[in-house]
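= Paired protein data =
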Amino acid sequence: MPSLLVVGMPGAGKTTLVQELVNRDVSAFDADDLPGIWRSVDGPHAAGVDLDGQRYAWNIPVMQTFLAEREGSDLVVAGVAQNFFEAVPLFSRAAYLNVSERTMRHRLASTDRTNPLGSTQEQVEALCRLRPAFYEIVGNLALQPIDAELDVGKIADVIIPLSS
């Protein structure tokens, strides 16, 4: 059955999208909330942005188990990690939320955010420096772009047909 991975830079609207999809009775999950999904990575070559002095990546076997336990169900998983590209083959489809730097900065500055990544100016600047690499990767993977500047309802209208 179809499964859809939606990735996007912090501030692209992934968490808001998941909330909208759940409100529409779509089986949608924020990758940040999957138990055991995060693993710490070390070393000078570890890409990503420090959060509490650590850098994190997805634990791919945890993602595999999560999907296997839900095999046969249409679902959407939204999130991003420095190794998100390793998870793309686990899904039937993958798309990305395309957000401008200006909008990303605005959303990261919002006091309504629950995700701590992007809460400091240092993190915001690091995320902005990572944007070109992120967009190069999603381009190389030929992921479907979705305009994250749209209202979340319109984004959900695009996502729902992709997830079933």
Summary: The two ends are 8 Å apart (CA to CA). The mean pLDDT is 89. Strands lie at 3-8, 28-30, 38-41, 55-58, 75-78, 93-98, 144-147. The first strand starts at residue 3 and ends at 8.
